[in-house]
Specification:
Butyryl-Coa Dehydrogenase, subunit A, domain 1, alpha+beta, single chain, 12 helices, Butyryl-CoA Dehydrogenase, subunit A, domain 3, 398 residues, 5-stranded mixed β-barrel, Butyryl-CoA Dehydrogenase, subunit A, domain 2
């Protein structure tokens, strides 16, 4: 097992610094709320700036396809900065979920046609899975070999041959940025019940028969859509010989590591905001931050956030070195974010619950991410099952 280098390179520090400065200027509280009210749910100008100055959409894509050629670690560090300000953007849907699948399973022609446009920010993409099965498809909370994509029966998304191409019909819910993405990577079942299998298909965002409706989500900074596919023409991703379920499982661990760093960034900022507030708010003639009980509560949050940061950084490093720790890191990071956000609202008092204050946005991010990718106890349970920790007769060395 390789030893983890706990330091960051000059290039990694520069990515973090540049991204933090850019987001500070263009994604403040007012800009954030304005972006949430747009049809897309994000600011296209900010996305263009992120693509132009940092190459964010193609950060982890090979240079041969117009990317920067960095690793998952750089992608995770970028997510941490994005999480600090809850920046609404197609980053997660495009760069973390959709692009790696095209890179892993697509034909040379598909990669050449699509990845350079994703890398330069002119094409956004989204991963669409049936129902509310995103965490299942990514193998975060259980085995993804079940019937989550339809299983050959009615329901989910079904695919059938139509001459030289394919036609899709069915419904996918909770598709991140699915209402605005220029390209959809749709998971669908094909074949009869006995021989059914899951495949991935490419569907343009303006395809005939595709109905996209933005949903009202608990976390408005994470826009979601419901897709209805009514006999939609689709292109098979890859040759059909690739192991789609294994590719989704591998993607799940990478996505979990990136999401863990994003949650750590949000938790860290929520804690910072709370510390700033308790230094200013006075009660009984003194700042409430001077009371020992408040100090203890914030100290507990600080320890939790730092532990989650260590786990998230390790998960990002482990992904690059062929190890898997994303699920556990995500569980710890979501728990830290929930704790930081809850304490933030408590210590802000009544103002923390209001729409005018940012504190509730961090709490909704914590709750929304647990609904999408968790909950925490299922993330941990699946990690334990995958490691065979509780098999009868297994010896555990402490």
């Amino acid at each position: 097992m390789a030893a983890m280098d706990t330091g960051f390179t000059a290039e990694q520090d520069e990515i973090r610094r540049t991204l933090r400065e850019l987001l500070r200027k263009h994604c403040g509280p007012e800009e954030l709320r304005a972006a949430l009210d747009t049809p897309a749910g994000h600011d296209p100008a900010l996305w263009t700036a992120l693509a132009g100055r940092l190459g964010l959409p193609g950060l982890a894509l090979p240079e041969a396809y117009g990317g920067v050629g960095c690793s998952v670690t750089e992608l995770a560090l970028a997510a941490e900065e994005s999480g600090r300000v809850l920046a609404p953007s197609p980053f997660l849907a495009t760069a973390v979920l959709a692009a790696p699948l095209i890179l892993a399973l697509g034909t040379d022609a598909q990669r050449t046609r699509l990845l350079p446009r994703i890398a330069d920010g002119t094409l956004t993409a989204a991963l669409a899975v049936p129902g509310t099965s995103l965490a299942t498809a990514l193998t975060l909370t259980g085995d993804n070999g079940g019937e989550w994509a339809g299983g050959g029966r009615a329901g989910g998304v079904q695919a059938r041959r139509a001459g030289e191409g394919w036609r899709l019909y069915g419904e996918a819910g909770q598709v991140l940025d699915g209402h605005s993405a220029g390209l959809l990577v749709v998971a669908a079942h094909t074949g009869g019940f006995a021989r059914s299998r899951t495949l991935l298909f490419l569907v343009p965002g303006d395809a005939a028969g595709l109905v996209r409706v933005r949903q009202t989500a608990l976390d408005a900074t994470r826009p979601q859509a419901r897709l209805q596919l009514r006999d939609v023409e689709a292109e098979l991703l890859g040759s059909g010989d690739g192991d789609v379920l294994s590719a989704l499982s591998a993607l799940g661990d990478t996505a979990a590591a990136v999401l863990a760093c994003e949650a750590v960034g949000a938790a860290d900022r929520a804690l910072e905001r709370t510390v700033e507030y308790v230094k200013q708010r006075e009660q009984f003639g003194r700042a409430i931050g001077s009371f020992q009980a408040v100090k203890h509560r914030l100290a507990d949050v600080y320890v939790q956030v730092q532990a989650a940061r260590s786990a998230a950084y390790y998960a990002a490093w482990a992904t690059v070195h062929g190890e898997q720790a994303g699920g556990l890191a995500l569980a710890q990071a979501l728990e830290a974010l929930r704790g930081a956000a809850a304490e933030g609202i408590q210590l802000h008092g009544g103002v923390g619950f209001t729409w005018e204050h940012e504190a509730h946005l961090y709490f909704k991010r914590a709750s929304g991410d647990e609904l999408l990718f968790g909950p925490v106890h299922r993330l941990r349970a699946h990690a334990a099952d995958s490691a065979h920790l509780f098999e009868q007769g297994r010896e555990v060395t402490v």
